[in-house]
Design goal:
alpha+beta, 7 helices
C-alpha cells in the first residue's frame, strides 16, 4: 500500500468515527456499523479467497445503519471524507449506492462542513445538501467539525 492510500484510509476512518459519535450523541438513533470488517472479520482477513464480483459488492456495503430507538426509522448510510467537495464524484457515488443497495443516504465530511442526504435526493438535485439541523444541531456539528479538523490536519 502506498503512503497516500494509507492516509486516505485513515481520513475515511476518522470521518466514520465522527459520524458515528455525532449521531449517537443526539440519542435519536442507534448507530450500527454495517461494513464487512465489522460483520465478518474473518472475511476481511481472507479477501483473496472470495469471488471478485461478490467481494466488490460486499466490500462497498454502506458503512452504517441508523436505527431509531422506536424502530420506526431505518437508514443505510455511506460515509465519505473529501478534502475538497467534488459534486460529480458525490453524484456518481449516490448513483452507485442507489443502484446497488436501494434507498441509501450519503454523509460527506469535509474540512468546511458536513453534508447529508438521501441518494435519491442527491440524484434529483444534482448535488448534496449540508447536514440539516433537523438531524444534528448546528452547534453539535461545529463541535465535531472542529474535532475532525484537529485529526485530519495532523
Amino acid at each position: 500500500m502506498s503512503f497516500n492510500f494509507d492516509k486516505s484510509l485513515i481520513k475515511g476512518k476518522i470521518a466514520e468515527l465522527v459520524f458515528e459519535e455525532m449521531f449517537h450523541s443526539q440519542g435519536r438513533f442507534e448507530v450500527l456499523p454495517n461494513g464487512y470488517e465489522y460483520k465478518a472479520p474473518e472475511i476481511a482477513q481472507n479477501l483473496q479467497n472470495l469471488d471478485k464480483e461478490y467481494f466488490a459488492r460486499l466490500r462497498h456495503q454502506p458503512d452504517f445503519i441508523l436505527l431509531s430507538w422506536d424502530n420506526k426509522e431505518k437508514y443505510l448510510v455511506e460515509v465519505k471524507y473529501e478534502s475538497i467537495k467534488n459534486e460529480s464524484r458525490i453524484l456518481e457515488t449516490a448513483k452507485n449506492l442507489r443502484n446497488n443497495y436501494g434507498p441509501t443516504f450519503l454523509f460527506v465530511a469535509t474540512p468546511e462542513a458536513f453534508y447529508f442526504a438521501s441518494c435519491a435526493k442527491i440524484i434529483e438535485n444534482g448535488y448534496i445538501e449540508k447536514l440539516h439541523e433537523n438531524w444534528i444541531p448546528e452547534e453539535v456539528q461545529q463541535k465535531y467539525l472542529k474535532l475532525l479538523n484537529e485529526f485530519i490536519s495532523k
